[in-house]
Description:
There is one protein chain. The chain is an alpha/beta fold. It has helices at 3-25, 34-60, 68-109, 118-121, 129-151, 192-204, 228-231, 258-274, 313-317, 334-343; strands at 158-166, 176-181, 209-213, 240-243, 278-279, 283-289, 292-298, 325-329, 349-352, 362-364, 367-369, 381-385, 388-392, 410-418. The chain has ten helices and 14 strands. A six-stranded mixed beta sheet has the order 1-14-2-3-4-5, covered by helices on one side. Strands 6-7-8-9-13-12 form a six-stranded mixed beta sheet. It has a two-stranded antiparallel sheet with strand order 10-11.
Amino acid sequence: MNKIAIILVFVVIYFLIDYYVYQGIKTLFEGSSNLAKQIFFYVYWGIFTLTLAGFLIYNFANSDQFSWTLRVFMMVGVFVNLISKLVICVFLFLDDIIRFFQWVFNKISSDSPDMANPEQTGQGISRSDFLVKTAVVAGSIPFIATSYGIISGAHDYRIRRQQVILPNLPKSFDGIKLAQISDIHSGSFFNKKAVRGGVEMLLKEKPDMVFFTGDLVNNKAEELNDYVDIFSKVKAPLGVYSTLGNHDYGDYVNWESVEAKRKNLQKLIRGHKQMGWDILMNENRSITQNGDKIAILGVENWGARGFTQQGDLGKAYKGSEDAAVKLLLSHDPSHWEAKVRPDFRDIDISFAGHTHGFQFGVEIGDWKWSPAQYMYKQWAGLYQQENQYLYVNRGYGFLAFPGRIGMPPEITIMELKSA
Length: 419
C-alpha cells in the first residue's frame, strides 16, 4: 500500500471517529438554544478541520515552507485530538452496548407490541447523560496533560543528585562533583529563554567537570546555530567533555550525497569545539591532581536495535590502563551490558542518555515507571552490577513530542567519594 492510500485510509478513519463522537456529544445540547448548538457544531468541526489540515500539510507540503517546530505541533494536534476522541469512544461504545441490551430486554419483556410504548420497546432509549459527560471529562484528560507537558514540562529542568562511592578513587579526587546533561536536541527547542535558564541552573551547581552524552541535534548541524551562545557558557574547571549520539550522524535525513552527510557531521564536531567542549571520538583524556590520575573515556554512538555502532571502546580505552578510575561517556545505555561489562570490568561508571525516559512516566520516591522500561533494561537513573555503575540521564531536550509529562528534563549532579 503506497503512502497516499495509507493517508486516505487514515483520513477516513479519523473522520468516522470524530463523527461518532460528535453524534454522542451533541445529545448534551438537546435542550440548548439553537445558537449554542451552532457554536458547538462550528467549534467541534473547526477543530477537526484544523487538525486534519495540519496532518495533510505535514505529509504533503514542502518542508521549506514550514519550520520543523510548526510541523511537529501540527502532528501533536492530530495526535491529541485522536487520543481524546478514542477515550470518548470507549464510554460512548459502553453506552451503546447498554442501550442495545436495554432494547433487547424491552423487546423480549413486552407483552404486546400494541401495549408497549416507545420507551418500553426501546425505540426511545436515549443515551446516558452520565456516561456522555464522563466521556467528555475523560477525553479532556489527554488534552490537559499534553498541554501541560508542552507549556510547562518541556523546560521544567530538575537537578537530580547522586553520590557514588568508589573504593579506588584517589583521595585527591574525593568529593569531585560531576554534572551530566544529555540529548539536547537543539532543533526541537521553542523557548530560548527557558533553555538559557537550564544552563544557569547547571552553572550554579559549580561542577568540577561536565559531561554531555550525545544527541546535540535532531538531524542537521545547523540546528545548533541559535544555541551556540547559550551552551558555550557551560564551563568547568576540569573541562567539559562530550560525545556523539545516534541523531548526530544525520542518519534520519535524505542527503543529496554521502559527502554532504559527512560535511554535516564535521560541522557538528566543530560546533562542539566552538563551544569549548572536548569531544571524545573513541578516545580518552587523563586528569591529574597531586600525582593521582583518573581517565575520561568517550565513544561514538554504539546502540542496539539497529542504531549506528560507530563506538570503538577498545580504541577509547587504550592509554587509560593505569588510571585509578575510569569514567565512560557512551550515549546508548545498551552499550553497558553489551560491551562495557563483558570486556572492560575496570570502567567504574558509564554515563548514558538516549531514552529520554520516553518523555512520559511516573516517579514517586524510588519507584518509577515509563514505557521506556519495556525497551531498555536501564532507562533512567543509577544502576549497579558488582563494582560497576551506569547512570542514564533523562535528557535535557525533547524529540517528536514537544514536551514532557511526568518525566522532566534532567541535570545530573554526581559526587564521587572514596571509600
